[in-house]
Amino acid sequence: MKAELVVIGGSAGSLQVILEMIKKLNDRIAVPVLLVLHRKAHSNNILQALLQQLSHLEVVEIDDKTEIENNKIYITPADYHLLFEDKKNMSLDSSEKMNYSRPSIDVTFRSAAEMYGETLIGVLLSGANADGVNGLSYIKKNNGTVWIQDPETAEVDYMPRHAVEEVEYDLIITPGSLADHINGL
Amino acid sequence: MLEPSIVKDEEVESLIKEVYDRYGYDFSEYSRASFKRRINRICLIDRFTSFAELRYTVMNDPEYLKRFIEEITVNVTEMFRDPYFFKTLREKILPQLGTYPLIRIWVAGCSTGEEAYSIAILLKEANLYHKSLIYGTDLNPSVLEKARAGIFPLQQMKLYSENYMLSGGTKDFSDYYTANYDSVRFDKSLQQKLILSTHNLVSDSSFNSFQLIICRNVLIYFDRGLQERVFRLFDSSLENLGFLALGAKETLRFSKLDKNYHQVDDQRIWKKLDHH
What we know:
The structure holds two protein chains of two kinds. By secondary structure, chain A is α/β, with parallel strands linked by helices.
């Protein structure tokens, strides 16, 4: 089954992995890549500007009702949950935090799994929080694909270690190999 | 813990229809993804074991309906949320409003009132409060009761005080309230110019004209069609050269009305252009 979307969740220690991936992504990729990263509530667009500097792909910080398009990288804004209305339309939600987090990786993994089913790839990176682990299980339950960062390579291994223990995964990735796997889709 | 999926899509649709037929609240153009999460959440916190049980209670207990509406709509808010937005209001927008003999501001979807109180503080500090009226509206009567009481949790004051300072506030924030055990009561004078009333953006029409309409993190819960209708409602309620302020990630960009407005700096504030 051809992948239609890659959603990458990460918390503490994940930014380095994202930066390395961005630098190595091809100028054209087969799917959109959506990032759900824990960050401070009042973060401005610094992350978008930083990633854009390193990438030929367009990097977009999501506004409410943004339509997702191929060959772009999307960033979930700080202090909002990101949900899918359908495969194309994303909407934001500022309701209660989940797992002490907004955005919550679980919330987006779950919503994307319901819309994309087997065409979704969920990736969980370094982090100190359990957010994302249940969402990965839900992706699997909906026949999607699960990639997890090798806990040995994670700056903070709590999140990927839990994921490896609890979720039936398809692939263990490293900071160096993540871009290759996306380029290969 | 992952929220369970108690409710199916068809069940959400039938509940929306029944609530509308019975009570007149129309959620048919709310964003489905968020709405479904809210339904699942209310099943969880009110311990309904099935959708049928929730449906029965909503349809047969008008008292419970109030709670249902309160939980189904998101009431997460804070004072001076996004401090730089308030800084822009303080430094760029209020000086322009100061030239009017009477300043009318509409806080649409004001929930428990934190933003309306924040605006009152800004107006006081700009010496404009005496000639201002702030209209705070929400579809939900119970949040307006809380807004009317002006009592907020003490534990929030640290964050609000930081937000206030980042917004350019120079006073001691605690001068605006009286602390009492675990809650604080905001100064009564902040309510003097505050008019709180129910108003449903989905079904109610324009009720006045304003120089500033603030509606933040409300439209994210509406689908694009309803957003467009609400933008038209705001447009017809806004004087020429008036301002429309939205949430940090909401935009007028996807609307047909965009061409009649000019965005202020990089903030989510749009100025209505003068057209004759």
